[in-house]
Write a structure and sequence with these properties.
- This protein is of the alpha/beta class.
- It has six helices and four strands, in the order βααααβαβαβ.
- A four-stranded parallel sheet has the order 2-3-1-4, sandwiched between helices.
- Strand 2, helix 5 and strand 3 form a beta-alpha-beta unit.
């Protein structure tokens, strides 16, 4: 198995989206809570001491939305919230499922930029799981096979 390093944004292609769904079912928002409370909740769940909630919100450019109720947030803010929670998880890499899906063109550009900024600025390896090979080729600089991460089919 290849070690993931902070030099790449990795792409993992899946023809069947259900396989991705089964892999990444660990994040659910409490839609009546604020963005900040959702971040704090996951910070406690993951016992994350490396990043505090405000720092993660600032990293992703959503600090000004911290008081906003999640159910009233745009898809772009919700996707950034998913990325924030994945960072708080404290894994060796941040794994994202279809981070650009359902976003308009401006939202897609912003999420791509956030992913690249987090990767390069904070030296976090990122794995993008997608059924859209065009998107993987656009944002990722290295392709890996799902078996390299020991992911069950």
């Amino acid at each position: 198995m290849e070690q993931l390093d902070n030099k790449h944004i990795y792409g993992m292609f899946f023809k069947d989206n259900r396989k991705i769904d089964n892999m990444l079912k660990d994040i659910m928002f409490i839609s009546s809570f604020s963005v900040y409370l959702n971040i704090v909740m996951y910070s406690i769940i993951y016992k994350n001491n490396k990043y505090d909630a405000n720092k993660v919100l600032q990293m992703l450019g959503i600090y000004n939305y911290r008081k906003k109720i999640v159910k009233n947030c745009s898809l772009e803010i919700k996707e950034k919230l998913v990325i924030a929670i994945r960072i708080l998880k404290g894994s060796k890499y941040v794994m994202l499922k279809e981070p650009i899906n359902h976003l308009d063109e401006q939202g897609s550009i912003e999420i791509r930029n956030v992913i690249k900024e987090i990767h390069y600025k904070y030296k976090l390896p990122i794995v993008i799981c997608s059924s859209n090979m065009k998107e993987i080729n656009f944002i990722c600089d290295k392709l890996i096979d799902k078996n390299e991460l020991n992911i069950q089919k």
